[in-house]
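Side project, low priority. Logging it here so it doesn't get lost.
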Amino acid sequence: MSAADMTPISPSRTGMRPALWTKGDWNALFGFGTNILVNMLVLTGLLQFVLKMPPEIVFGRILPAVGLMMFLSTAYYAFLAYQLAKKTGRDDVCALPSGISVPHMFVVVFVIMLPIASTTGDPVKGWEAGLVWVFFQSFILMIGGFVAPYIRRITPRAALLGTLAGVSIAFIAMRPAFEIFMTPVIGLTCLAIILASWFGGVRYPKGIPAGLIAIAVGMVIAWGSNAVGLNYGGMSLDKLAASLANFGFSVPLPAVGHVFSGFTYLGVILVTAIPFGIYDLVEAMDNVESAEAAGDHFPTTRVLTADGVISLIGCLMGNPFINAVYIGHPGWKSMGGRIGYSLGTGLVVILLSWFGIIAVLLALIPVVAISPILLYIGMLIGAQAFQTTPSRHAPAIVLALSPHLAAWAKLLIDNSLTLAGTSAHAIGLEKMAGIGVLYHGLEIMGGGAILVGLVLGAIAVFVIDRKFVAAAGFALAGSVLTFFGFMHGEMVGIAVTPGVSLAYVMVAGFLLLCARYAVPATSGAGLMAEGAHAAPAE
């Protein structure tokens, strides 16, 4: 979107009454709303087709609870934005985006709910296990909210945004990119519509949002091709007619009994709930940092505590998915989003989830028409890590995002081999290494990727700036986290990957020696751009 389309920034007017809706909120509503819509369509598909959850549970219990949680979340972050705008007198404050945590959506389904549902033969048992998983993660978020501000203060921005860029590229952008090229007639056309507006500043007739135009064009191509027998997008009248059976009105109902029934599987649940609770903490800190880089400062403690409380409410009402602050604040702000887009999205989600409309949309809109919006967000967040940090820190950002590529590659391999009824260890790691697939390396580097990226990125930033003591501190922290399985491991435990933990200790020792004895470089390849040598060693 061009600068001319942005809501103008007026001089500071402390105590003003901020506008609840601006013209730019329409752009952000359709952009963010379609992002949320994609996630809800995927979530519904996982519940229906992977977990084989009964429709009365999906549309009568889970989705209404999802809608309630997301409404509370978007309303609260709209309120925080309103407070910030009123306090600062600015009219360009953008609310934090929030919703179902996408990485956790897949983790809770495939790691918790599906194995238990398959073992017991009862998908409801899987649902109950998912509720307990969220129950524990909610408390980790609430407690962690009080230590997160300190972590933000001591961690370089390049490390925070670099690991966020890794999540964005690997888990936000890649799948939509593949979907686009699987159905390029729709995908590439819609991508061009999105890029021309949101990067190129092209304005469409009567100010119609680019996201809405992309969806409309995608639907026209999909249903038009269906009419002539080409069937791009997989649409059919039979699927659309069947979806109407889920129309109705369902409000969330307490599910406390189901939560406590899930405690039977506590041992299995805690193995992933604790590390992913820490993942949530770091991810939320990254996203708050991303918003601050875009000009909007929100209190980290209040954000994390709110995520925990809202997730707990959703859990007790039957929602087995955690709430999270989303990647993408700078993107929605660049479209002109302010306060209203967040609250508006929450109201739309209520309508979709309480009235069964999501089932109809699942059969009406080709997902590939929405994929370019997610790809755009991935591009924007990946770029922000480089644009809002000193250029000399660029190598640290690349290092910080690399563990996510390892985690993504491992996930693809694991899912493919599971489908074939085998695993990497059953095939043999040496055989896989013989064809160039270093599975064990992916396994170690990708374990706890968001923490690995943060630690490696911070070490690299401090080394570039010749702050060797600080770099050694992060290396020691990496050693402790690795020893207990929060990094470079598949589970929490004692001495999970002791060799990697020892290696971090050795790195810390070397960096302390550098702090004591290293002399500043004066020439040669050791100097980074923009005067990295200017920072003295500690």
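Brief comment: The beta strands are 98-100, 323-325.
Revisit when time allows.
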